[in-house]
């Protein structure tokens, strides 16, 4: 009985080592695949975020609504134009209390900026190049119409300024 028992235990031990080796190989393959995926992602700095890697995804937008000079909606997605700051409309929380001193609060210019952006976006095919998310959860994106940058257009008109 002792010899049979030892053979079974030896077989169980071999089987356990084989399972462990298989699991180790599977984990190593997974880590390798993840490493390959990460090294093939374009590196883009996302302001205010600890994450510096994000894939830049470009797509067109068929349904656009304009909130103000630097925020639009592409369908249900809220999009913040990257690289610019436009004046705030009356009623914006940024123009109340202590925050008003740090914000660009000019309702007339804000309306001009919003209207100019609306007109620019209506002039052709709107293309978004997504760059990440801002602190409010909006998608940060470069917005182009027929290859022309919407942010640059507003800055040339004096209706927006560069934003780091």
What's the number of structural domains?
Answer: 2
N-end to C-end Cα span: 79 Å
Order of helix and strand elements from N to C terminus: HEEEEEHEEEHE
Quickly give the CATH architecture of the largest domain.
Answer: Beta Barrel
Proportion of strand residues:
15-25%
Q: What's the mean pLDDT score?
A: 79
CATH class of the largest domain: Mainly Beta
According to DSSP, the number of beta strands is: 9
Give the proportion of residues in helices. Answer: 25-40%
Overview of this protein structure:
- The protein is built from 3 helices and 9 strands.
How would you describe this structure in keywords?
164 residues, alpha+beta, OB fold (Dihydrolipoamide Acetyltransferase, E2P), 2 domains, seven-stranded mixed sheet, two-stranded antiparallel sheet, 3 helices, 9 strands
Topology of helices and strands:
Layout: H1 2-39, E1 57-61, E2 64-68, E3 71-74, E4 77-81, E5 84-85, H2 107-121, E6 126-133, E7 139-145, E8 148-149, H3 150-156, E9 161-162
Parallel strand pairs: 4-7
Antiparallel strand pairs: 1-6, 2-3, 3-4, 5-9, 6-7, 7-8
Give a short summary of the structure.
With 164 residues, the chain is of the alpha+beta class. Helices cover 37% and strands 24% of the residues. The protein has two domains: 1-40; 57-162, OB fold (Dihydrolipoamide Acetyltransferase, E2P).
